[in-house]
Design goal:
With about 300 residues, the protein is α+β, with helices and mostly antiparallel strands. Helix 3 packs antiparallel against helix 4. It is elongated and about 65 Å long. The chain folds into two domains: about 110 residues, no CATH class; about 180 residues, PAS domain (Beta-Lactamase, 2-Layer Sandwich). The longest helix has 17 residues.
Length: about 300
């Protein structure tokens, strides 16, 4: 079997090596250099070469890979019958790894391409990272059940996840968010009833399909949206303690809560991220006149940037 070489562009489009589509994406119709190597090292392309019927080699420069390209390759691996995966990646020099597990190959690609994440700065929202691997040993934490479910299912979301969460009293405080490579802003897919204490009823009625950043407190929406995007891109969980003062309509809501974010594959180019939380402390501020809230919010928001 002759090797078959394709590449995924930074936008997630598949092209054959040397094809007109590849040259158009390269931006050079007559390259006099190794155009494939250049595209991989400098443009964020991922090389996908079928070496034999059941062996594939994936070549990439992780620092330059964009989410659409990563998800396109991972989706191809999920639908393939390859049994041996060689990952070749560039970090000052070329490195090579081999695995016989498609799950390990997908996870390793996520690890390699995970961007360095610094939580957005804010004077109203604070996060304290926790060791998510420690959840397995925390028998008193209800979040460990969903974490164990995620690990045992290799991160695949199916029809058993919702009933499982309900059975362990986690569904009420769960949020499910969808992240797509070509629509990078996360959107609500599910919001549990337990979030009525800080999200107004009128928003819950229209939340499904709405961008996370468009919730009533847009500063909080934009802040938390970055965490969902990072988890979707990295393919790794986040376990943390969050302290937030959230503005909902003309009332404030202070909360200190434990949060577990898990990335799930769903068989399409979309990634689900579940947010399961447990309140550690919360308070509702006394209502203020709407006019005063509206007049003071822009000034406070400007100071937080």
């Amino acid at each position: 079997m002759r090797p078959l070489t394709m590449l995924v562009t930074s936008e997630g489009e598949w092209v054959f090596e040397g094809s007109p589509e590849f040259l158009a994406a390269l931006g050079d119709q007559e390259p006099d250099y190794d155009s494939t190597l250049f595209a991989v090292k400098n443009l964020g392309f991922i090389k996908f070469e079928t070496v034999a019927r059941e062996i594939v080699e994936i070549e990439l420069h992780p620092r330059n890979v964009e989410l659409p390209a990563l998800l396109a390759v991972q989706q191809q691996l999920l639908s393939s019958r390859f049994k041996l995966f060689r990952i070749r990646y560039f970090e000052e020099t070329w490195h090579s790894e081999i695995t016989s597990s498609v799950e390990q190959a997908i996870s390793r690609l996520s690890e390699l391409c995970a961007p360095t994440f610094l939580p957005p700065k804010s004077d109203r929202f604070f996060v304290e990272p926790q060791d998510w691997s420690s959840l397995s040993n925390q028998e008193e934490s209800p979040l460990r059940f969903l974490f164990q479910k995620w690990r045992m299912s290799f991160g695949y979301f199916d029809s058993s996840v919702i009933p499982f969460a309900a059975r362990h009293q986690l569904l009420s405080r769960m949020i499910i968010v969808g992240v797509k490579p070509r629509q990078p802003e996360p959107v609500f897919r599910f919001v549990g009833e337990g979030h009525r204490n800080w999200l107004p009823p009128h928003f819950l009625a229209v939340a499904i399909g709405e961008k996370i950043e468009n919730q009533p407190d847009k500063d909080y929406g934009g802040w938390v949206s970055e965490f969902y995007k990072h988890v979707a891109v990295s393919g790794q969980p986040r376990y943390e303690h969050v302290t937030a003062t959230i503005r909902s309509s003309w009332r404030g809501h202070f909360a200190h809560y434990e949060r577990l974010l898990l990335p799930w594959r769903v068989g399409t180019d979309e990634t689900f991220v579940t947010a399961s939380s447990r309140v550690l402390r919360e308070e509702r501020a006394k209502p203020r006149p709407p006019s005063k809230a509206l007049s003071s919010a822009p000034r406070k928001a400007s100071r937080s940037r």
